Amino acid sequence: MVSWDGHIVPFIVTVLIWFVATGLVAWADNRDAKTFPKSILIGGVCGISGLLVILMASQSVSVLAVYFAFICALMVWGWHEASSTVIHHEVVLALTALLLISLSWNAPNQISATVFVLMFAMRLSSKINIFVGVPNSSLEMLPPHLEYLKTYFGRNRMTWLLGASILAITAVALWFGSLALQAPVGSPEMVGASRLTTLCLLGALEHIFLALPFRDGMLWGWALRGRMHEAQARASARTIPTKLVDSND
């Protein structure tokens, strides 16, 4: 039986957090370079605060603690998005995942470590797929200072790896979904499993976006508005000389 508090509300809240958090990270990454130190400072404060809250929430099995643990895991994840060196970024993410696993090893609430490991695994999956090649390498959310990463992207094509990745993530989502349906109604276990199910479904959706002609700006245009205006201005600047030459001819 589907529960409003145990299934639907966690689903809605997780989708909203995913949408807003992704947009905020894209907005911060695409701002002027002089704002990066401030963004890193704010991200650092949020990340450290998130770790402290995770330590406290891991000792509680209440529904509220599950919500706090989930949100703080995303805060720690968002902190890492301030890094611009890819290999160092991945190493630190792996170390953070190990840290969260060790902190919650014997704790009653392990939602933070599970969320972080899931996001790390889905991130690696998407990066490997893009490196191998996907039909749609959406580049709208890639900040200008990281455009060199395009040189590592594979050619546009559909591969068995992308299909297998979507199926694998969907299978994990179904497993968490079964746990959510079997858990006692309104229990922290139900809320936690519902949020993990939603997270996996969003990860599968992002992989599906790699296979479809989908533009990130359709969802996060509000976060990329400044960059889009700059791109339009540069495009207009390039067309003006051409028009002048045509008129002189």
Spans with pLDDT under 50 lasting ≥5 residues?
A: 231-235
User: What is the count of structural domains?
Assistant: 1
Helix % is over 70%
Categorize the overall geometry: globular
Order of helices and strands: HHHHHHHHH
End-to-end span in angstroms? 74 Å
Kindly report the average pLDDT value.
Answer: 80
| Backbone CA Rg | 20 Å
Number of strands: 0
Structural class: mainly alpha
Question: How is the biggest beta sheet arranged?
Answer: none
Quickly count the helices.
9
* Residue fraction in strands: under 5%
Structure description:
The chain is mostly helical and 249 residues long. Helices cover 72% and strands 0% of the residues. It has one domain (4-248). The chain has helices spanning 4-29, 36-57, 63-80, 86-103, 111-132, 160-182, 188-209, 217-220, 225-248.
Topology:
Elements: H1 4-29, H2 36-57, H3 63-80, H4 86-103, H5 111-132, H6 160-182, H7 188-209, H8 217-220, H9 225-248
Helix pairs in contact: 1-7, 2-3, 3-5, 3-7, 4-5, 5-6, 5-7, 6-7
